[in-house]
Amino acid sequence: MMSFDRKKHWETIYKTKETKDVSWFQPTPETSLSFIKEFNIPLGAKIIDIGGGDSLLVDHLLDLGYQDLTVLDISAAALEKTKKRLGDRARQVQWIVADIAQYQPTEAYDFWHDRAAFHFLTEEEEIQNYVITLHNSLNPEGIALIGTFSLDGPEKCSGIAIKQYSEATLTDRLAPYLDKIKCVTLDHITPSKMPQNFIFCCFRKL
């Protein structure tokens, strides 16, 4: 049986679909922005967006005046879309093409943002690698915001099985390294008007 080529899958998705047509599209990432505002993330904070793809979060953060932004995604095509959209402003952002399940950052961050990347990791080794990388990559008192499909959310996305989380299971998974601050559940409405239930949890490094 052939192993699944995750990178090839996502390159194909981003090369064949428009930004506004994918199920995770948000013209304004309101939940992420509200957490950033609530926790007073300073404009000079080092922020990394895990699985940022062609999300518009980086656009909004630049608009707000954030100065130290990194976007990581497994798909080079996704990041090229975002660079093209940003134009000259793309030079203000660091771009990393990598699989977060295997990547080892060389810098530490004040704010780790992950909307719907973590739940694609279903193998225990990959999940544990992610958690350790997250812990090692956060500055002291750094904050992580992770959004995944909840137990009431879809079991698949883009044809791939995902791992659903509840507040308890997500907290337990990160508990050895991070302290939960706050969790919320909400429905994301896809471009096809279908609801997807998410849980977003914010953690602080112990």
Number of domains: 1
Poorly predicted regions are: none
CA distance, first residue to last residue: 42 Å
- Which of globular, elongated, flat, extended, rod-shaped describes the shape? globular
- Annotation field: number of helices: 6
- Would you state the CATH class? Alpha Beta
Describe the structure in your own words.
The chain is an alpha/beta fold and 206 residues long. It has a single domain, classed as Vaccinia Virus protein VP39 (Rossmann fold, 3-Layer(aba) Sandwich), CATH 3.40.50. It contains 6 helices and 9 strands; from the N terminus they run H-H-E-H-E-H-E-E-H-E-E-E-H-E-E. The protein has helices at residues 6-16, 30-38, 57-64, 76-86, 124-137, 167-174; strands at 46-50, 68-73, 93-97, 109-115, 138-149, 156-157, 160-161, 178-189, 195-205. The strands form 2 sheets. It has a 7-stranded mixed sheet with strand order 3-2-1-4-5-9-8, sandwiched between helices. Helix 1 (6-16) runs parallel beside helix 4 (76-86). The longest helix is centred in the middle third of the chain and has 14 residues, at 124-137. The chain is globular, with a radius of gyration of 16 Å. The model has no long low-confidence stretch (mean pLDDT 93).
